[in-house]
Amino acid sequence: MDAFANAMPLQGFIGGLFIGLASAIVLLGLGRIAGVSGLSARAFGIASSGPPRAIALAFVVGLPLGALVTRLLFEGVEVHFPDSWFPLIVGGLLVGFGSRLGSGCTSGHGVCGLSRLSPRSILSTITFMLSGFITVGLLRTGGYL
Amino acid sequence: MTRVALALLAGALFGSGLAYSGLADPMRVQGFLDLLGDWDPTLMFVMGGALVPMAIAWRLQARAGKPWLDERFELPGTRHLDARLVIGAILFGAGWGIGGLCPGPAFANLALAPLPALAFVSSMLVGMLLHRAVSD
After folding, report:
1. What domain count does chain A have?
2. Which A residues in the span 29-88 are in contact with B, Cβ-Cβ below 8 Å?
């Protein structure tokens, strides 16, 4: 059996718990949605509404700090990037524009909104997942993966 | 100041979860979205894990009068479904598939793979600015 040979369900679930716990702290402690697209737009002065900029910036700065500590503490924290920067540039543009137009991303809609059973977040999450499946399916079919 | 410290702590915890879970790895994200290839279900477990504390948090929130460190909850109240929501999600999902990154992992990767992450983050901020330019 080499189906799902690369899967790491337990590590994924535990990491997911951390993500959910962090979102819960933002909700119960700061009274806000832990949506990274909204918080980063606020931190960089792109969005005029949202929490005070210092709070948004602190959360965004925390992201790489937490990732760094985690890689120092645990083995097997690896990331694999494509050789070309082209998909990063195109992907970044679409993620930035789309998350602002759609009022959220994987964290705000996918984690915070789904768990709230928000109709908008349920529609958003279904749509961006389908779009992701179709996009990667097209890349696979076109021989780009 | 306490709120800034809590935000930093929450961000670090969030980034830690992203790195540990595999969600910060673009190849794993593409593996999850790659139904026609060697499908990797890990992200379903990440999502499942993240929803547990948040489902509890929403129940606590419903009974709390105010957050620990602020005067009131500032939460989205919009309920109507519109084209902007759907078109935004379509574009976002396409970018997520092409780059293998969404905003949280993009920032987390500034520590794990600084140069490619910086390329994605810069481009993402340009995308956000473009949206602001066309929506004003």
Report:
1. 1
2. 29-34, 36-37, 40-41, 44, 46-47, 51-52, 54-56, 58-71, 74, 77-82, 85, 87-88
Q: B43 near B22, Cβ under 8 Å?
A: yes
Neighbour-count burial of B77, counting CB atoms closer than 10 A to its CB (0-12 exposed, 13-18 middle, 19+ buried): exposed
Q: Where do we find the tokens 């930093």?
A: B8
Per-residue pLDDT tens for B76-93? 988 899 999 999 999 999
Hey, what are B126's tokens? 């340009």
Confirm whether the ipTM is greater than 0.90. yes
Give the angle subtended at the CA of A22 by the CAs of B48 and B57, to the nearest 5°. Answer: 70
CA distance B83 to chain A (A): 9
Provide the domain limits for residue B123. Answer: 2-135
Let me know how many helices (H) and strands (E) chain B has, helices first: 6, 0
| Facing residue for A133 by CB, picked from B33, B81, B123 | B33
Is residue A10 domain-resident? no
* Residue A46 within a domain: yes
Cβ-based contacts under 8 A for chains A and B: 493
Distance, in angstroms, between A121 CA and closest chain B CA?
A: 9
Count of the separate structural domains present in chain B: 1
